[in-house]
Amino acid sequence: MNEYVALSNTVKGIAGNGGFCEVLAVPEEGVMNFPLISPDQTVTEEIQLYPGFSWNSYVINSGSRAFSEEQSATKSGLLYTQVVSGRLYDQGSGNHILFNNMALHRWIVLVKERKTGLTYLIGKPDAAAYFSLKYDSSKGTVSEISFTNTSKYRALIYAPPVDSVPIGVFEDQFEDQFE
Question: How far is CA 57 from CA 43, 93, 154, in A?
Fold first, then answer.
């Protein structure tokens, strides 16, 4: 059976900007139950969090949002590096402290892609993403943040039942950018 026959350009003709709508993240220690990954690299059940933890929304400025995934061959096999990045225009004392604390944790990240509407899951409890920050005062109050993960898996597709998605945050607030 040829598994590759179904390959097609699923987003042909869709106009608009690339990148993603929004990013949600939770520290890996907040994950109580991580569902099984199906053979097609999809997570179809909700990620359950411990009490006191919730998905944190990071609304990154439009025009700076990027999600990339790069494959590399190593002696151990293929590796995939996923990077979610963008700029925030507020480097107040609250964000300064928050960013310092975020760098001390590893993260499970959800990213909703603009063109396809797919939600990607980056990281899992045994291979979570790292947070990093680049701040340059010569650029005003701009902070460039990123979540980076290297794994033997491509970014997983996160598709739990609609009523269980923790993403009231992934509402239509960006819809006008796609039309």
Answer: 20, 19, 23
